[in-house]
């Protein structure tokens, strides 16, 4: 079976599941996202991966509908020629370079937007100014108010402002579109020259409660997936500090798993909220406060 026949068979399998394939399929063994005809303009809800080594195999998915399938050919495929391999490698490198360029441009625009938003926001001076502070029983801790949302700044390892995190009165949180996520962190409290203990938490309310209870500066990772990168950044900035990663006690184990990995990455320590389904804000709002 020729490579072209295999690609046609792969496309046919996609159509059989209700996914309209892209015009061009690149059988280079890497993941490709694509627009599915009929979906929202510029959306990339489709994905596929196909390799032609030995017995050709691949996978495809429609993220919007949830359709997902693995596929393999029953016949041996022709090995890719050296020219084909070079072509696919060049196309992959060009695609990755373009994606990197677009990502960096989006992050630069988001950073400019973050500066503008912060400059046009107002400091929250009283907990009663925002429903989220009232609900979580925390102080504003340097947060600002912008169009009804509580906001705090996110920085990178170079201490440059790279983003804003929005928290709406109902507790709904959202990032600034296009901003750096992995490696960006917030901070509650100012790190002074004599500070030897620094804490890391997932969210703003947890970080606020930890800071108010302990007095230590607390870095905000925003979510569990960013704990490792945040821990590495804090260690880079403060090589001699004692770093304690404060984990949510998730029923899924996500918070604990990422906290252990983050503590390992920064050669620090970790603690976990005592009860399943809780974080340290839950603990402190229940007025069960322990010294850290």
What's the quick description here?
It contains 7 helices and 14 strands. It is of the alpha+beta class.
What can you tell me about this protein's structure?
The protein has 292 residues and is an alpha+beta fold. It folds into 2 domains: 3-80, no CATH class; 123-285, 3-Layer(aba) Sandwich (Rossmann fold). Helix content is 34%, strand content 24%. The protein has helices spanning 3-16, 82-119, 131-136, 204-214, 227-237, 254-265, 280-285; strands at 32-34, 46-51, 55-62, 67-76, 122-123, 144-146, 149-155, 161-167, 173-175, 186-188, 197-201, 218-220, 242-247, 269-272. Strands 5-6-7-8-9 form a 5-stranded antiparallel sheet, with helices on one face. It has a 5-stranded mixed sheet with strand order 10-12-11-13-14, with helices on both faces. A 4-stranded antiparallel sheet has the order 1-2-3-4, with helices on one face.
């Amino acid at each position: 079976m020729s490579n072209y026949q295999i690609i046609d068979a792969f496309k046919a399998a996609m159509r059989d599941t209700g996914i309209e394939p892209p015009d061009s399929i690149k059988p280079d063994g890497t993941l490709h996202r694509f627009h599915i005809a009929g979906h929202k303009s510029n959306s990339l809800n489709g994905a596929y991966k196909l390799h032609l080594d030995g017995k050709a195999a691949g996978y495809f998915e429609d993220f919007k509908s949830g359709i997902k399938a693995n596929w393999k050919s029953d016949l041996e495929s022709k090995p890719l020629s050296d020219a084909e391999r070079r072509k696919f490698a060049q196309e992959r490198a060009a695609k990755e370079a373009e994606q990197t360029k677009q990502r960096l441009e989006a992050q630069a625009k988001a950073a400019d937007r973050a500066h503008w938003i912060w400059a046009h926001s107002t400091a929250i001076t009283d907990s009663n100014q925002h429903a989220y502070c009232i609900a979580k029983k925390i102080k504003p801790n340097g947060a600002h108010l912008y169009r009804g949302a509580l906001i705090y700044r996110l920085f990178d390892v170079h201490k440059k402002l790279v983003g804003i995190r929005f928290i709406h009165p109902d507790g709904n949180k959202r990032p600034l579109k296009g901003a750096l996520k992995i490696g960006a962190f917030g901070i509650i409290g100012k790190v002074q020259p004599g500070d030897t203990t620094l804490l890391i938490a997932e969210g703003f309310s947890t970080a606020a409660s930890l800071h108010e209870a302990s007095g230590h500066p607390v870095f905000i990772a925003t979510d569990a997936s960013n704990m490792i990168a945040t821990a590495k950044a804090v260690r880079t900035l403060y090589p001699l500090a004692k770093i304690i990663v404060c984990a949510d006690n998730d029923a899924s184990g996500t918070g604990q798993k990422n906290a252990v990995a983050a503590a390992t990455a920064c050669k620090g320590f970790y603690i976990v909220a005592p009860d399943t389904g809780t974080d340290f804000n839950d603990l402190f709002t229940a007025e069960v406060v322990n010294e850290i």
